[in-house]
Amino acid sequence: MSQVVTVPATTRGFDCNATINAAAAAALFTHGYRFAARYIRRREARSSDLSLTEIAVLHRAGLAISIVQHVERDGPPWWTPWAEKGTEYGITAARACGELTIPRGVTVWLDLEGIMPGTDVGQVDAYCRAWFEPVQRAGYVPGLYVGYGAVLGPAALYRLPFTRYFAAYNLDEDQYPATRGCCMRQHEQKAGDVPTGVAFPLDTDVVEADALGGLPTMFAPDEWDGALA
């Protein structure tokens, strides 16, 4: 059995772009992590994307799951967003979540970073709004992961319809959405973050209530308690 949970502040998790097997999931739980942020497709699926099998593995280990859609590119060559892409990627995110039996009410993150310098702010705004609509319509809580090269400043981020923001490790606090801030913060991997036997890199993530009290929701096993972390 599984459930949708509102994740409490101070809960520690991690994000990675690798399939997590049972041994790694158990080691990560023992290391103090209580959730895994894992990726879904933007267009074609990748072998490392989240699967039904991996969901079962993570839940058996006691880990909740946060959902992130792959960004088009997170570094040079930079990419260019527009509204039609937002609609396409949002529809794909909703479909991928449905195929994975992700329940309604879970936060699904749009990864916003690596945008072509000089891209018009209005174009990025339109992309985000276009992505938001099909994800919300499918019953999920649209969230925005904000990284380097997102183009939108604090005021523009806050004016978007999103109510959940996830700060990348390279996002300074003065770049957070105005008024609200972020409810989850990523930290770059450092010594001691990866337990023995885990062969893939990861970034650590920490939940914190934003300035308006917002917290992320995740797909968790029964009797999950993030406060154990």
Summarize the structure in words:
The chain is an alpha/beta fold and 229 residues long. 25% of the residues lie in helices and 22% in strands. The chain contains 5 helices and 10 strands; from the N terminus they run E-E-H-E-H-E-H-E-H-E-H-E-E-E-E. The strands form 2 sheets. An 8-stranded mixed barrel has the order 2-3-4-5-6-7-8-9. Helix 5 (154-159) links the parallel strand 6 and strand 7 (165-167). Helix 3 packs parallel to helix 4. The longest helix has 17 residues, at 83-99.
Question: Short summary of the structure?
Answer:
Helices cover 25% and strands 22% of the residues.
The CATH homologous superfamily:
Glycosidases
Question: Helix and strand string, N-terminal first?
Answer: EEHEHEHEHEHEEEE
CATH class: Alpha Beta
**Distance between the amino and carboxyl termini:** 21 Å
Mean pLDDT: 96
How are the strands of the largest sheet arranged?
A: 2-3-4-5-6-7-8-9
> Helicity level, as a percent range?
25-40%
Provide the CATH topology.
Answer: TIM Barrel
E-strand count: 10
Q: What is the 3D shape? A: globular
- The helix tally amounts to 5
**Given the helix and strand composition, which structural class is it?**
alpha/beta
Largest sheet composition: 8 strands, mixed, barrel
Strand content: 15-25%
Overall domain count: 1
Break the fold down into its secondary structure elements and pairings:
Layout: E1 2-6, E2 12-15, H1 22-30, E3 35-40, H2 52-60, E4 64-69, H3 83-99, E5 107-112, H4 121-137, E6 141-146, H5 154-159, E7 165-167, E8 184-187, E9 203-207, E10 217-221
Parallel strand pairs: 2-3, 3-4, 4-5, 5-6, 6-7, 7-8
Antiparallel strand pairs: 1-10, 2-9, 8-9
